[in-house]
Amino acid sequence: MSTTTVKANPFVNFKDYAGNFLFIFPAVTLFTIFYIIPFFQIFQLSLYDWNGISQTKTFIGLDNFKELMVDTAWWRSMWNAGYITLIALTFQNALAFALALACDREIRLKGFYRVVFFLPPVLSEIVVGFIWRWILNADVQANQHIGLLNYFLDAVGLNSLVHNWLSDPDTAMTCVAVVHSWKGFGWGFIMLLAGLQTIDRQLYEAAQVDGASSWSTFWNVTIPMMLPVITVVIVLTILGAMQSFALIISMMGQGLGDHTSVPVTRILSAMNGTKQFGYACAQGVTFGIILVFISFTLKKFSDRMKQA
Amino acid sequence: MDETHFLNKYRLSRWCKSSVIHIFLMTVTITCLFPLFWMVRTSLMTRETVFLDKSIIPAEVHFENYWIAWTEGNFGVYFLNSILYTVSVVVGIVLISSLAAFAFSRLKFPGKNFFFYMFVAAMMIPLPGSFVPLVVLMQKLQLIDKPIGYILCMINVGLSLSILLLKTFFDKMPPDLEDAARIDGCSKLGIWRHVALPLARPAIAVIVIFNSLSVWNEYILAMLILNSKSLMPLQRGLMEFQGPHSVDHHLLMAGLTIAAAPIVIIYLAMQKHIIKGLSSGAIVG
Amino acid sequence: MKKILIFGFTLFAAIISGFGCAPAAPKTDRVVIWHWMTDRDKAFQELATQYEKETGIKVILELYAPSDVYSQKIIAAAQAKILPDIFGILDKKSVVADFINGGFVADLTTDFKANGAEWESSLFPKALSVNRFDENNPYKVTPGIYGVPIDVMNIQMLYNKNLLKKAGIAKPPATIEEWIEASAALKRVGISGFVSGWGELWMADAFASNYAFNIMGEDKVMATFRGEVPYTDPSWIKVFGVFADLQSKGVFATGIVTKTNKDAEQDFALERAAFAFNGSWCVNVYNEMNSKLEYGVMLPPVANKDRPMKIWGGAGSSFFVNNVSPNKVKAIAFLKWLTAKEQQTYLAEKTQNLPVNKLALATIPPILADFSLSMESTTHPTIWPLNEDALVIEAFDKGLQSIIIGEKTPEQVGADVQKVKLRQTEKQKKKK
Predict the structure, then answer these.
(1) Which residues, in sequence order, are bridge partners of residue A307?
(2) DSSP category for residue C25
(3) Does the bond joining A224 to the residue before it have cis omega, within 30 degrees of 0?
(4) Is ipTM over 0.95?
(5) What is the arithmetic mean of pLDDT over A217-240?
(6) Could you tell me which CATH number the domain at A64-307 has?
(7) C-chain residues within 8 Å CB-CB of B135?
(8) Does C16 touch chain B (CB under 8 A)?
(9) Is A107 helix (H, G, I), strand (E, B) or coil?
(10) Contact B234, B210 (CB under 8 A)
(11) Which of B130, B179, B215 is the best substitution to test chain A (most A C-beta atoms within 10 A)?
């Protein structure tokens, strides 16, 4: 045992500060190199008119941003991303929560369910897009439906529901959103399950002794204890859904134009399709700012909820 | 008579409730398992029958597709590369992000909040289209076409989320344990190693799964940063079956099944830790 | 604790060593090629081995697929100054021009014209035109030939002989009216009419372009690009009207607007549709998917009997030479060898693509030969005197999609596209 006296506030002097800083040094170094520097370059490039190839760039100030403000295709894509996010927040997370609650008890096959529900996130977007495209296919060959969903609907007599799922602008986006939720609920599931398992069983027993109904137990015990985990899941769901794009490309190609575009596909299209690199950077910067704003608002909201 | 009647009714309602729950779970299970099943089913067919045969179980089973996929796709090299990258990146992330998260949560130094929010903001400001500046930068640093370059880049990709998750976890750590360790003469690093890390096992398990998945399925950065075929990860092998105009579906599905297997294994290994770590009750009181 | 420090040190040492390594001196006994053609990789590797035997020069091929990732890699490599000796530019001519003006692409005119234009005259002129920049080209590129085509292609319509017979159609339709009739007959026996990969916008654009040339002729189309003719002109409304017509009469297969080309190829190969619109590369694809398919090639049915139908065609794939590569001469020599008769014959056999060397046409399968017969009717954006603005093309293609899904009328689309055209013209004026 060393004989150093334990100071009241031991880590205050400069040497300690430097020592503490070393802890974050590797992270900050990597971050600066691989994120900050490209970030500033993108920020810088958003002020130029450039096609990504030529050696000359023209400085145009905030013109890219001005054009972005009136770009209906861009805002439409933001709306689409918002729609996916909405479905994800409701359908995906409700499903994840319900499943987590169901698996929280001591039921048979608990381990089996835990593995199975995590399979969709494991599959790559190529597979998921491919399979669901086959399921939602609306082609008819020799009076037989090729897509599984239409085939099934027809077989059980629900022929009126047979639809042009992926080619109809009304249903296409919803299909994409549902598939996105299907692929994503596994994450929410394990996080919520882990959170549920930390709740002290004694609280439940106490509520039962007090004669509380299951609904009231849920509302007054489970939800408050789960609030931090729920917040993390919500934030991650929003960020994931707003930034999703690989699934859409895999399911629909360039599909129905404005109906199924999302911000990232617009950025990629500006970068690679119409070769407006500066404009694409402006889109990226704007998108980032919007996401930060959303997260910031959410944090404020959840802080206020915690105090309530 | 009344009592048994009541007991039976109670048992019946409980049985009903439990059945409903099971039906619900089973339905979701089927929707999750079906694509995997379909993937395996397709991988056992031949190029001609892939589309023409619509039955659930194919008439002939061609297990050799897996061997063909492995050899034609040069999976051996790619597989090893993917394992190398995934292990290095995950180990790197766990170490670097846990050190950083520990510091953000427990230590004082100037600019702490600034740096932390910087990491958090990075999660929200994606850089699609940052490929070109990134490649130029890495070329200047001589990191192009080198495994270390790709590894470092991927470590950075996973840092923000990992730091956030771990910091939230460390925040919940009771100071008593830390004080006890400090009184015992533990240095900061010692506290990190002996107190914080073991407690954070569930969070670390989540980070391992998440980052393993992201590195294993990653493709674009690998294509851009690496040039030589011998350094490419598994996803590159899958591209062998996707020509610009035709796709060898049966081989592709076999390849995808091979690619999905290790991740499932990692998840199986890690998911026990999440539950075990939480229920071991390290957090007293 | 010590272990952690040791790990940390090793990690950082690794990083430092990553920095410290001097760049490997570029090797001069080899030629490095980056390509995207997955299905031809094996054939290329065989040729590379053969070339090394013949000349002692090593040829290293790296494949990066799919094509959009390849394009990104090329652009990133150009900026980072690490382009290989030979590469491809999978983009419009304006982008190729940008690469040339950026100093990344070597001018090959002297090599083509050497020895009395020996190399130049051995290849199909239409294929060379794709990579040629003429006097007064709008891209301000020094006139010359900059790329080497390694195959030829064109995009036409295909028809399934058996399915047409089943529906009682005697011969493939030559006009739009005949086509509509044929589709009605096909519907009666439950066969889908027409598939194409129009989820990939450029294919729909090609189809529309063919009809634009048929309805109003090349001059008027060029005049539109110059801004002299609006997109609301009756001729253009007629072009849009073709799509509206075919859609309303049920000629298109369901879901055509979200089909990728691969899906469409699948549909046609598996006899799910009677007509397709695809390029000559499809021969290889259909053969792999269904070797018993009996099909023929035809030009798209004309909308205007007074003008010929034009189809897109020219060079299939082309390679460019890195201007700052120390192995430039070796690279050019290899490309010359690659386009020689023997190698072209080999490639045509192995990969079922039309050869670019005139003398190699002898040994191609009959259906490919049918494709090559229409090379005279081909045109291509890369050989037009000017091209439309990228954003206008985007609006145009999206407009086509809206018509197919029944969302907008031809007149509305014409007005929409014209709006974008005017805006872009204003922007161009401001720049000057």
Answers:
(1) none
(2) P
(3) no
(4) no
(5) 81
(6) 1.10.3720.10
(7) 76-77, 79-80
(8) no
(9) coil
(10) no
(11) B130
Backbone angles phi, psi at B232, to 5 degrees: -75, 150
Residues from chain B contacting residue A21 (CB–CB below 8 Å): 103, 109
Domain range annotation of chain A: 1-45, 64-307
Return the partners of chain C (3 or more C-beta pairs < 8 Å): A, B
DSSP H helices, B2-74, are 2-43, 49-52, 64-72
Helix locations, C317-407, DSSP H:
328-338, 341-351, 366-373, 390-404
Q: What is the CA radius of gyration of chain A?
A: 25
Strands C192-195 and C311-315 turn out to be unpaired
Quote the tokens at residue C73.
């890699």
Q: For residue B98, with 0-12 CB atoms within 10 Å meaning exposed, 13-18 middle and 19 or more buried, which class applies? A: buried
- Contacts A–C by Cβ distance under 8 A: 93
The per-residue DSSP string of C389-427 comes to -HHHHHHHHHHHHHHHTTSS-HHHHHHHHHHHHHHHHHH
The side-by-side arrangement of strands in the sheet containing C147-149 is C58-63, C30-35, C86-87, C318-321, C147-149
Q: Do A253 and C394 touch (CB under 8 A)?
A: no
**What's the token pair of residue B68?**
């063909």
How far apart are the C-alpha atoms of C5 and A186, rounded to whole Å? 37
> Pseudo-torsion of CA B198, B199, B200, B206, nearest 10°?
80
Q: Using the beta-carbon criterion (under 8 Å), do A39 and B130 form an inter-chain contact?
A: yes
What does the DSSP 8-state code read for residue A36?
A: I
Task: Verify whether the Cβ–Cβ distance B104 to A267 is below 8 Å.
Answer: no
Contact residues of C toward A, CB < 8 A? 8, 11-12, 68, 71-72, 75, 78-79, 91, 94-95, 98-99, 101-104, 190-192, 197, 199-201, 253-260, 263, 267, 272, 390-391, 394, 397-398, 401-402, 405, 407
A14-21: long-range contacts (C-beta < 8 A, 24 or more apart)?
A17/B108, A17/B109, A17/B110, A18/B109, A19/B188, A20/B103, A20/B107, A20/B108, A20/B109, A20/B188, A21/B103, A21/B109
Quick one: closest CA in B to A188, which residue? Answer: B206
Domains of chain C, each with CATH number or no CATH: 27-151+316-356 (3.40.190.10), 154-313+386-431 (3.40.190.10)
d(CA C17, CA C25): 17
C311 HSE (CA, 13 A, CB side): 25
Subunits adjacent to chain A (3 or more Cβ pairs under 8 Å): B, C
How would you write the pLDDT of chain C (432 residues) with one tens digit per residue? 455 555 555 555 555 444 444 445 556 678 999 999 888 888 999 999 999 999 989 999 999 888 888 988 998 899 888 999 999 998 888 889 989 998 999 999 999 998 888 899 889 888 888 889 988 888 888 999 999 999 888 999 999 999 888 888 888 999 999 999 999 888 888 888 899 988 888 899 999 999 999 999 999 999 999 989 999 999 999 999 999 999 998 889 888 888 888 888 888 988 888 999 999 888 888 887 788 889 999 999 999 888 999 999 888 899 999 999 999 999 999 999 999 988 998 888 888 888 888 888 777 778 888 888 888 888 998 888 888 888 899 899 989 989 998 889 999 999 999 999 999 998 888 776
Q: How many CB atoms lie within 10 A of CB A147?
A: 23
The minimum CA-CA distance between A160 and chain B, rounded to whole Å, is 23
Residue C89: alpha-carbon gap to chain centroid: 11
Question: Given a contact as 3+ CB pairs under 8 Å, which chains touch B?
Answer: A, C
What is the total residue count of chain B? 285
Compute the residue count for chain C.
Answer: 432
> Residue C101, Cβ neighbours under 10 Å: how many?
17
The pTM is what? Answer: 0.83
CA A54, A60, A65: angle at the middle one, nearest 5?
110
